[in-house]
Amino acid sequence: QVQLVESGGGLVQPGGSLRLSCAASGSIFRINAMGWYRQAPGKQRELVAAITNGGSTNYADSVKGRFTISRDNAKNTVYLQMNSLKPEDTAVYYCNANSQSSWFSPLVGSWGQGTQVTVSS
């Protein structure tokens, strides 16, 4: 079983920046893709950004040019640098990871508990 622990959320003014971190621990042989999702009140959870273990990235159109996802494979940690934040970025942000506990095990998806990001003046 894999545990994901997020940190770095909070309250920020429009135009400000925040950096989210998500550390994975537990029974990990390999982590493939890692990503950040968000869910605003009354809306469905949506993909914000994802990154493969090789470093390829994918972003939602709404955050391109403002957010940057990165990872440290040695630390099993993924980051989300969020710049030029807007009120519409307000949501609970969730970390996701697809991992194997051994070379012959299937990929299993895990979720963090979520961290609140509020963009408001």
Could you characterize the architecture of this molecule?
By secondary structure, the chain is an all-beta fold. Helix content is 0%, strand content 56%. The protein contains no helices and 11 strands. The protein has strands at residues 2-7, 10-12, 18-26, 30-39, 46-51, 57-59, 67-72, 77-82, 91-100, 108-111, 115-119. The strands form 2 sheets. Strands 2, 4, 5, 6, 9, 10 and 11 form a 7-stranded mixed beta sheet that branches. The protein has a 4-stranded antiparallel beta sheet with strand order 1-3-8-7, with no helix packed on it. A hairpin with a 6-residue loop joins strand 4 (30-39) and strand 5 (46-51). The radius of gyration is 14 Å and the shape is elongated. The termini are far apart.
> Could you say which overall geometry the principal axes of the C-alpha atoms support?
elongated
The SS-based structural class is: mainly beta
Over the alpha carbons, how many angstroms does the gyration radius reach?
14 Å
Q: Which regions are unreliable across 5 or more consecutive residues at pLDDT < 50?
A: none
Indicate the mean pLDDT.
96
Sequence of secondary-structure elements: EEEEEEEEEEE
Strand content: over 45%
* Tally of DSSP helical segments: 0
Euclidean distance between termini CA atoms: 40 Å
Number of strand segments: 11
Largest sheet: 7 strands, mixed
Name the helicity range. under 10%
